[in-house]
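Bug #77: duplicate submission created two jobs. Keeping one. Sequence:
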Amino acid sequence: METDGPRFLVDCGLTQERELQDRNWGPFRFPPQSLDAVLLTHAHVDHCGLIPRLVCEGFRGRIYCTEATAEIARIILLDTAHIQEEDAAFKKRRHEQEKRRGKYPEVPLFTTKEAEASLPFLSPVKYGEMVTLGEGVTARFDDAGHVLGSSTIRVTFPTDGGRRTIAFSGDLGRWDRPILRDPQLPGEADYVVMESTYGDRVHEETEDIRRLMADIINSTYKAGGNIIIPSFANQRAQEILYYMNDLLRADEIPHIMVFLDSPMAAEITEVFKRHPELFDREMLGLLRRNHSPFEFPGFKVVTTTDESKALNHITGTIMIIAGSGMCTGGRIKHHLVTNISRPESTILFVGYQATGTLGRQIVDGAKGVRILGQYYPVRARIAQIHGFSSHADRNDLLRWLSGLTKAPRHLFITHGEGPSARSFAALLRQKHGWQVSVPGYGDEVILD
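Kept job's structure:
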């Protein structure tokens, strides 16, 4: 966003879709050194993952975000850099063996050193705090209810006719979900830039999540296989533990071992423990009764690579929660190699799978997939629980918009695949008669 004064970004994410990798490797569409700030809504890699590159190429402003987001962003950026380095080394070895070159350089997108260099620019703020960006431009962060520390951001800026406010939804969460508080409503806004990841559908109810999860675990246990869950380390892994703890305490599933095979998820879980002020009433009640979902019998955090490899030699049914959530990297690939061709095992997806990712190929019914350079037939049971998503569905998005105190001058639908974004835009035009558009990549808009 460019004003007569400060120039800033809202988020600076890394794309995980294979066909869009040029956006990660290509030059920024603006000189990074020309920016005064970045307003970071939350610490998912598709919102913060290119910050090290931004800093490496000249950005020297502040990156404003909540304290929890800053703590989690540190973990995620360093982990992403480590994965980039490992994947680049693996790709280089494979290409040398195959005597070929890939489309992209055999180097990491950014290194651990470059990720570390970006961390001092993180500048924590509190919910409701007014941040002055300069020349009369201010920003306020409110709770988005999506992941720990996630925010919607309202930017107010001067115009010839007075002042205008633009609300950025970031990624919105859902009402009545475990652990976190509900999203805060937007209030007054002249313009809205809004996500639409699930703008064309409604999630299963919470009770359905428990039932579906119990059914999948019980049937896989009966078949003698493993439950492999590709999971995002931030929020999703913690919600899985929440439900597992609930089901185990209710004796609705066998008391199997549960392994969190993600050092990053383990670190983020520690951040959760440090920020109980962000929890909802129900979660605080569990903690008071010593029923923390992050500590229960049969649960083990896996830290070392050797421990991770050893999981594939355990007999009997176990659950392995590992990253990444879309199977684009990390330890999950090795567990897929071991289990994806086993009919008795279940690969359980509990999150959104972007077009072009390995996870999307699997849930779309691919008969075989390429993992770590080798082809594997898909014989395992493939299951998906959409209701786990921490993303608002169509009804939640409408509920958030109901908090606007007046009709916006224009509403921009972003951060959703084409059909979802267009469907939600059409719904809003029909329901409210608002001016709604779905901008394309690189479009520029003048706000008056």
